[in-house]
Amino acid sequence: MKIYTKFLMYITIVVFSVLANNCKKEIVPADIWEYDITIHPDEQYQTIEGFGASLAFYENWLIAHPNKKEIYDAIFSELSLDILRIRNAYDYDDDMIYRVTEFIREAEASTGTPVKVMSTSWGPPAYLKSNNDRMNGGTLKYSITEDKVGFDYSGFASWWEGALNEYNNNQIYPDYLSIQNEPDFAASWESCRFDPVETINSTDTIAGYDKALEAVYKKIETRSSRPLLLGPESVGIGYNTVENYIDNLNTRYLYGIAHHLYHGAYENNPWVSPDFAKVGQLHPGIPHFQTEYGRGDWFTLAGFIYKSLNDENVVAYLYWDLIWDKSGLIGLDFPWDETLWTNSKGYKISKEFYALKQFSAFIHPGWKRIGTTINNDSVKALAFINPEKDCISLVLINRSDKNQYHITIEIDDYTFENTSLYTTSQDKNCVYMDPMGKYDLLLPSHSINTVVMIVKQNNDMR
Q1: CA gap 182, 177 in Å, rounded
Q2: Is the CATH code 3.20.20.140 the one for domain 49-360?
């Protein structure tokens, strides 16, 4: 069961801070600055579709791990992930379908509800590649006749249809589909290049993303369980990359605009990046998705999530590596030899896990982002309301590395009734803390908290 169902009548306030004490407002030390924040439920923005991460590569490490049940409970129940991004390895890794089947089964066992699935191609099989290699870039296989280049878009679309058939035959029905991970990057691992439109000149012969997307869309459009297409999943949001892809395709084929953050996000200081807002202005009527990023530390992760939700208005934020070899949200030790383990249980939960949890465990699909007002630029605020309008999640991030802030909360036309609090900081990982009071928060510098409040609309006569 997701955490928020335990607090159906609660407001969740996610605050990046650490409580120093339980003192009442009137005895807050003089060196703590005081500010007010007001939440505006009637000022509404995007509807959230979820938080997620990728279970791509090292899948067999998780399958083989002797403590995998604990790991599944952590990533699906505790972290409360809504979207699982997986690798389409159809027709070159016959065991992948069985791994994915286990992941989906364990997700539902841990949470009691199905997890949304996003299937992404890191690259098609070698027989569909121009370099006859799943790795090392290349593009779609092509032929040259009468000075014309013909790319095998039909074969690529048929490969995707075969993948969906295999999923469906195993009772897996992907919610989202991305035809190619990072089409603008020729990686040494599984990859395949697609330019926004075909590039054919004396130095390059590269397939067009626009035509590949159209071919896949038309191939699968009559399926009864057709997934929603996301794209282009470009490397980043800088250099007008997302705009160049989207401006050259038929947007009716896309459900959502998806990208990564490996450029344009300002890895060491996301707060000053203008590219989040710029990309957010691109077809604002189409949902935006951030589908992969994993750089920076636990505190900058809060900044990436904030800028994505607030400036770009994304409906979903996905971390990169859910599990990996000694890294990711959960770092795994080599599962086949316990003598090589560096952790007693063979895995370690990272600090980034808890930073993401401050959002993913308390904000859920169907919630809307709503307005906030705070008179302090060092504290960044996000707020969300659930469909029943009896829960509101407020995210506060104290960016200062030296100042503490005492925050008094008000919500337009709502009354507080009760309060509880959770904290993530340098030395705390989403642990329960006693709050100062119904309306009061203490935000020490550079830190994380979750306050859960019972509220009621003032005009609610139920």
Answers
A1: 14
A2: no
pLDDT at 437: 62
Give 396-419 pLDDT, tens digit per residue: 898 888 888 888 889 999 988 776
DSSP conformation class of 279: H
Using a 10 angstrom Cβ sphere, with 0-12 exposed, 13-18 middle and 19 or more buried, the burial of residue 224 is exposed
Query: What Rg, from alpha-carbon coordinates, does the chain have?
Result: 23
Q: Where in the chain is the domain with CATH 2.60.40.1180?
A: 3-46+368-457
Strand ranges for 338-411 from DSSP E = 347-349, 368-374, 379-385, 392-398, 405-411
Taking CA atoms, 279 is separated from 228, 284, 319, 382, 427, in Å, by 21, 9, 19, 19, 35
Q: Is the pLDDT of residue 3 over 60?
A: no
| Domain(s) of CATH 3.20.20.80: residues in the chain | 49-360
The pLDDT score that the predictor gives to residue 234 is 98
The helix or strand, by DSSP H or E, that contains position 110, with its residue range, turns out to be helix 96-111
Task: Judge whether 441 and 435 are in contact, CB under 8 Å.
Answer: yes
β-sheet bridge partners, residue 395: 14, 382
Mean pLDDT for 269-284 is 97
- CATH class of the domain at 3-46+368-457: mainly beta
> Distance between CA atoms of 36 and 407, rounded to whole angstroms?
5
Q: Residues 166-193: pLDDT tens digits?
A: 999 999 999 999 999 999 999 999 999 9
